[in-house]
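Researcher: I'd like a candidate sequence for this fold, 519 residues long. If you have to choose between options at a position, lean toward the conservative one.
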């Protein structure tokens, strides 16, 4: 099955059910499908052909969903761009993808126009929000195009999305994701649309991110109403959940923490929520424990994956978030598992290997590899990088360092590029960060390696103190001495007001190293 069937099936089953709620707009599945078909026919009339790359630049909105399905129906390739990217990054992505068409929000038009001459493949620039002289307008294309169903020859292995990685370690790489990359997950894990069901998803994860795309496709296939927020804002999120009675949410740990810490958290009725899925960044144990207390009866799911694996490859299910047991040992084991990323999905194989590619046993730290029908086809026109990431047996080298325990639960220890090596000993920044976050005076922390003549590298903690607290360097180091092997403790501590994170909540270590990584 290809992804265009998700919308077609849901439209046939529940045509009059709300598909999208976005600000003052509401579209049924029938209306959504009609707009998708009109846009697809309009693009075809402009000369956009099978396999052409159509770029989209805007915060979350109903047009994100419309454009994806329109491009997919005409067998094109959807190119969602990170709206936080800079001019050079946009130019790089559009040029390497050889995009024929760009659909852009008002805020991004001047920048796209400034680089338009550099992108030789670009034929059409479409304004999303208002008319501009000499430029195509999105709504005009929809109004002037027929609503006939668009049918194209689409193979399950055809690339449907070209998604560029975040680029925190250099220029981004274009990840080729097929229709099968998404359908294999959705068909195995989502109940098909039901006209009697009244499910709704609140979606705030950006739709240029694979987690957002996966959540969107799951909602469409499941016949769920998508309640969309342009960008996450805690008060607005709670208001939307309360007003629309949303019962499902996809969040990153930073979002969940901001909700729990918000002064108006108790003033909103969030009782409609039944499932909260979180992921994309490590979840601090204090945050998830507080969330379990504050959202009684809600099923929590930790979904782990990356762009190269079309998102989720492991999950820590609701049953693993219930910390009960007949003995203290059993309860401690379950508590420890809250720090894990769970077990592999049914269609995914995983293993941990050493530097020589040898499979490691339980609790031995190495690189995590994954294999299955959902992994990427490769990096766009980059055979060298593809060969480094996908080996001859089809295993994707995730770049994540971790281990698997005796019961098959996977734990992260860090990224291979972030690992700190001190006198031959490996120190996981994530492990150190998790310990420091438990300190009662610490709000957040990032740990980086600092070059040292004697030891090679020394860990440095860059700490945001809790409001009203003034921890000292010695307090932090003593806390680490008490909770970790002595060689792992930070040798220096820097106190700051904020730390750079990407929209998915991940620390941007490159920026932190640049600013605080000098000896």
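Model: Candidate sequence:
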């Amino acid at each position: 099955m290809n992804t265009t069937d998700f919308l077609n099936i849901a439209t046939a089953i529940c045509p009059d059910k709300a598909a999208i709620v976005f600000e003052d707009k509401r579209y049924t599945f029938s209306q959504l499908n009609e707009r998708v078909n009109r846009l697809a026919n309009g693009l075809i009339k402009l000369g956009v052909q099978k396999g052409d790359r159509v770029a989209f630049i805007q915060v979350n909105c109903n047009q994100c969903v419309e454009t994806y399905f329109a491009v997919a129906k005409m067998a094109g390739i959807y190119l969602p761009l990170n709206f936080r990217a800079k001019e050079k990054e946009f130019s790089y992505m559009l040029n390497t993808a050889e995009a024929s068409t760009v659909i852009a929000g008002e805020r991004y038009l001047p920048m796209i126009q400034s680089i338009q001459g550099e992108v030789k493949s670009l034929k059409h620039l479409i304004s999303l929000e208002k008319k501009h002289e000499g430029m195509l307008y999105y709504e005009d294309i929809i109004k002037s195009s027929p609503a006939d169903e668009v049918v194209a020859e689409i193979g399950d292995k055809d690339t449907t999305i070209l998604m560029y990685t975040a680029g925190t370690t250099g220029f981004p790489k274009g990840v080729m994701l097929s229709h099968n990359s998404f359908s294999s997950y959705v068909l195995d894990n989502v109940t098909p649309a039901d006209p009697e069901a009244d499910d709704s998803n609140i979606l705030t994860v950006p739709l240029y991110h694979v987690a957002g795309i996966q959540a969107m496709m799951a909602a469409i296939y499941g016949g769920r109403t998508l309640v969309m927020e342009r960008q996450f804002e805690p008060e607005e999120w709670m208001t939307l959940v309360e007003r629309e009675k949303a019962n499902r949410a996809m969040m990153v740990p930073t979002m969940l923490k901001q909700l729990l810490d918000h002064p108006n958290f108790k003033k909103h009725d969030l009782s409609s929520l039944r499932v909260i899925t979180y992921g994309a960044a490590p979840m601090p144990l204090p945050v998830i424990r507080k969330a379990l207390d504050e959202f009684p009866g809600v099923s929590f799911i930790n979904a782990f994956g990356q762009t190269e694996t079309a998102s989720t490859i492991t999950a820590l299910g609701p049953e693993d978030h219930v910390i009960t047991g007949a003995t203290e040992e059993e309860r401690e084991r379950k508590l420890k598992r809250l720090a894990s990323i769970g077990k592999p999905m049914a269609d995914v194989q995983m293993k941990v290997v050493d530097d020589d590619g040898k499979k490691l046993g339980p609790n031995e730290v190495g690189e995590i590899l994954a294999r299955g029908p959902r992994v990427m086809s490769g990096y766009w026109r980059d055979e060298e990088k593809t060969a480094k990431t996908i080996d001859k047996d089809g295993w994707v080298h995730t770049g994540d360092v971790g281990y698997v325990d005796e019961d098959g639960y996977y734990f992260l220890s860090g990224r291979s590029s972030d690992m700190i090596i001190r006198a031959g000993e490996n120190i996981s920044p994530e492990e150190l960060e998790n310990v420091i976050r438990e300190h009662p005076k610490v709000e957040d922390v990032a740990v980086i390696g600092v070059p040292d003549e004697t030891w090679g590298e020394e860990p440095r903690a860059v700490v945001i103190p809790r409001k009203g607290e003034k921890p000292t360097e010695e307090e932090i180091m003593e806390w680490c001495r008490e909770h970790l092997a002595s060689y792992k403790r930070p040798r220096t501590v820097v106190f700051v007001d904020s730390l750079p994170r990407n929209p998915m909540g991940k620390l941007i270590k490159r920026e932190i190293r640049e600013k605080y990584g000098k000896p």
